[in-house]
Design goal:
By secondary structure, the protein is mainly α. It is built from 2 helices and no strands. The protein has helices at 7-20, 25-42. Helix 1 packs antiparallel against helix 2 (25-42). The protein starts with 6 loop residues before the first helix and ends in an 18-residue tail after the last helix.
């Protein structure tokens, strides 16, 4: 039985796959979503999606 990767190791694995493989657009989107989820687990105080300003198309 293998041990689960730590979040940092998992992010490194996602980065490796993004950089060394040629993922399809769907696979790339899934990898980026996984990386964001892992990052948010490591940095829970940074989970405020509206902190940097309005979303595109919104007025300030």
């Amino acid at each position: 039985m293998t041990t689960p990767l730590s979040d940092v190791q998992a992010i490194a694995e996602v980065d490796r796959r993004l950089n060394r493989e040629d993922p399809t657009a769907l696979d790339r989107a899934r990898l980026i979503a996984r990386r964001k989820k892992l990052y948010d687990q490591l940095h829970p105080t940074n989970e405020n999606p509206g902190a940097s300003g309005p979303e595109p198309g919104e007025t300030a």
